[in-house]
Amino acid sequence: VRSLETANADLEVKIREWYEKQGPSPTRDYSNYFKIIEDLRDKILGATIDNSKIVLQVDNARLAADDF
What is the pLDDT of residues 23-37, one digit of tens each? Predict the structure, then answer.
């Protein structure tokens, strides 16, 4: 019986160590990236608006050129 208890304790230790290695990793803190992401989104939005303005100007120039 004692040898079974010893073997069982060894198995429990091995299982615990395996779960510590294979278990879910600790969650990472990405909060310092949120400001960078927000700035990049703002830049993308600004570039999209600028692009739309340029497309509108090109269309207006084409229409004006077609009138002549």
Answer: 777 778 889 999 999
